[in-house]
Each structure stands twice: as structure tokens, then as C-alpha cells.
Amino acid sequence: MAWTLLEPEDEATLTVAEQRLRRQLSLLFRFAVAVFCCWHLFDFLFSSIWMHGYIWSLNLPIDLDMSDKSAGAIVYHQLHQVGPVERVVHAILCVLGVAFVLLCVGFGKSEGQTTWKLLRVSIVVGFVTGLLRPVQMKQRFFSCLHEGFYCYFMFFVIGLILTFRFGEKFPKKEALTEEAELKKTE
């Protein structure tokens, strides 16, 4: 599996420099996957081809009347306004922002952070973004709901990619059978 590709099976066989290099490469891989997912989440949730993106596009402040245009024309207009380089830079900045917030709330310092805490933090970020967006852009309420959901969903997915560790919390099968035998004897 790609997620555990750089994770050592037995850390005792690796030197400290090799462990550090593997951690850095693992972080770089997770960062690249998070940027890729962020870019595609943005393209999916704000694309006019899909109904939610189409309604979002029609509720934006008007720079060009798009109410009688097809979804393809709206997508062409959006892609003309924001090119691929700007979208990649946006995705990188989003991932760095999520990583910074996760470090601030304690995901980098202590062990035992749960997915539920990540979900709560992402809901708060989405809710605050949804409330601040109408003040910032003077947009309609529906667009704010859409962007608040996007921030919540994007934050949760990126946070999950950056923080989730496979197999660290699960006990070995031998330990489970030993626990079951101890419970039977008691």
C-alpha cells in the first residue's frame, strides 16, 4: 500500500538518518496527495457542470450575466479567469493553511489525536468560514453555505490525509488472542 511504503516495518533496523529521511519523504508524499485532492475538490465543488457549482456560480456577484448561459460557457469563463497555475498555488496554500491550523490545535505535538477531534475542528472552520464569507464578499446566503461546506470538507479531507496513520492503533492478533484467553480465565 502506498501509505505505508516509506514506513519501516522494524525501526530497529534503520539508522536515525534513515528514519528521518523516511519521515520527510512520507510527509512530502502526503503533502503532494493533499494538494492533488484539494485541487480536485475545488474543481468538483465549484464546477458549473455539477448542479451545486452551477447554482453557486449563478449566486455570485455579477461580473457577467450568466443566467442564460450553458454550464459549459460558465466553466469556460471560470477557467479563463483562474488558470491552472493559480489553482495549484491555491491548493498548496490551502494545504499549508490546514497544516498550520492542525499544528496550532495540537495535532503535531501529542499522540492520541482522534478523527473525531479533526471532524470537530473542521466543522468549526467551515462554520466560521460560512459566517465570515457574507461579511467579506457581500454575497448571497446560498453561496456562503456552499463555501462553508467546501471549507469543512476540504479541511477534513486534507487533515485526514496529513494525520492518519495506518495500523498504529490496532493491536496485533497475538495480543488480541492473549487478551481473550485472559478474560476467559478470569
Give the class from helix and strand content and strand pairing: mainly alpha
Overall geometry comes to elongated
Number of helices: 7
Which percent band covers the strand fraction?
Answer: under 5%
Note poorly predicted spans: none
> What Rg is obtained from the alpha carbons, in whole angstroms?
22 Å
Overall average residue pLDDT? 75
Number of domains: 1
Number of extended strands? 0
Q: What is the N-to-C order of secondary-structure elements (H for helix, E for strand)? A: HHHHHHH
Assembly classification: single chain
The portion of residues assigned to helices is 55-70%
> How would you characterize the largest beta sheet?
none
The N- to C-terminal Cα distance equals: 39 Å
How would you describe what is shown here?
It is elongated and about 75 Å long. The protein has 7 helices and no strands. With 186 residues, it is mainly alpha-helical. It has helices at 16-45, 51-58, 71-81, 84-104, 115-137, 141-163, 173-185. 69% of the residues lie in helices and 0% in strands. It has one domain (2-185).
Short description:
This protein is mostly helical.
Topology:
Elements: H1 16-45, H2 51-58, H3 71-81, H4 84-104, H5 115-137, H6 141-163, H7 173-185
Helix pairs in contact: 1-4, 1-6, 4-6, 5-6
Transmembrane segments: 27-51, 88-106, 118-135, 147-166
Protein name: Transmembrane protein
Keywords: Membrane, Transmembrane, Transmembrane helix
Using brief descriptors, characterize the structure shown:
186 residues, transmembrane, mainly alpha, Transmembrane protein, 0% strand, single chain
